[in-house]
Amino acid sequence: MTQFVPVTTCHDCGLLQKISHMPEDGTVTCCRCDATLRKRQRIKPAKSIEHTLALVITALILLVISNVFPILQIQAEGHEMAATLFGCVKYLFTHKMQFLAGLVFLTTIGAPLIQLTGLLYILLPVNFGRISPYAPQVYRLVRIITSWSMLEVLMLGILVSVVKLSALATVVPSIALWTFGLLMFLIAAILNDLDTEMLWEQITPKTQAVEEQKSKPGTQLTNCHNCNLLCAVIAGHESFCPRCKTALHFRKPNSLTRCTALAIAASVLYIPANLLPVMVVRSMGQTEGDTIISGVIYLAKTGDMPLAIILFIASICVPTVKLLILFLLLITVYFKSPWRLRERTRLYRLTEGIGRWSMVDIFVDTLMAALIQIQGLMVIEVGVGAVAFGAVVVLTMLAAKAFDPRLIWDNMERVNE
Ligand SMILES: [Zn+2]
Ligand SMILES: [Zn+2]
């Protein structure tokens, strides 16, 4: 039977609270900020590992198929072209866009591969009652890399590309398109199935965190930000989570400074990202550059309104809103404002969730460029604006990770004292 930690601190507001009742089928939320403290999956724990393991193996097979076969094939003016995902990465790499190549590789191939092989390495022995060497460290890596796996965003990018390409050529969806679709649902099912708390208990059965330390003077209780174990930290002393070996901090170190620096860097790069072309089309001796906004306007004018709205939201609204929210949070925390604490925490959770969707534009530009290479007729290239835009996406994601939402509530506690 799964045990649960009856005392926990909230990862979003820092409140120490006791979970007095754990619903068998439900979710426990923070009594102060509504953050999810504990989520239990629906399947019975004994069956869960076997079930998740089957999903992981299937997903790995699908990932291999998705990378071996082309995603899309196009036919235009007697030419036939096909693009695999790895071909897209190779295209970027050979066209001196190593940063974008690395980013596309990490978010679509590297992260899902590490995530799935890591889970296989941990779950396979657990299924037979054993623990693989370094299992906690591997699971820690899996949890870090999960936020960089963006298959659902890639799927949206592929669908947008199909619509855009069908104006230029005959588009034939290939086998990898369907396997990517399936893979996306499988990974979502795996993450939903996995009872992380239970798995941590199984791979680190002898961990004692709080008991041995809490009697020492000057200790503060906090949950490990990676494995969520309640640990005691002593101010000014470096300590590590006994379960996953992550460095423990009562609050993220230099959170405000790091977040401000990253948000400013993202804002500066946001200017070239919008002014420079993200896609360059060379056709019949003419060269035309498309910026993010001109691409959206073109789609709206040619009657693809739903697509124009999707791209407008993902590429223009999301980064702008995210930067505005980050600055709002930074300024209000800096001035120790007691204004709307719960709503500001919700805004923080929103910035964490939406940022990845801006990658859609990068995936569309890369796919179009990798496919349309008809020398002498039409060649599409990824513009330098896309590099700046990719950097904006990465920097805003890092800024959101650097921000510690508990700082919002710390000020209130000080006001009340
Ligand atoms: Zn909370
Ligand atoms: Zn930990």
TrEMBL record:
Family: Belongs to the PqiA family.
Localization: Cell inner membrane
Membrane topology (UniProt): Multi-pass membrane protein
TM annotation in the entry: 52-72, 99-124, 145-163, 175-194, 255-273, 307-335, 382-403
Protein name (Swiss-Prot/TrEMBL): Paraquat-inducible protein A
Any GO CC annotation of this UniProt entry: plasma membrane
NCBIfam families registered for this protein in UniProt: pqiA_fam
Organism of this sequence: Methyloprofundus sedimenti
Keywords on record: Cell inner membrane, Cell membrane, Membrane, Transmembrane, Transmembrane helix
Main location: membrane
Source organism, top-level taxon: Bacteria
Pfam family, one: PqiA
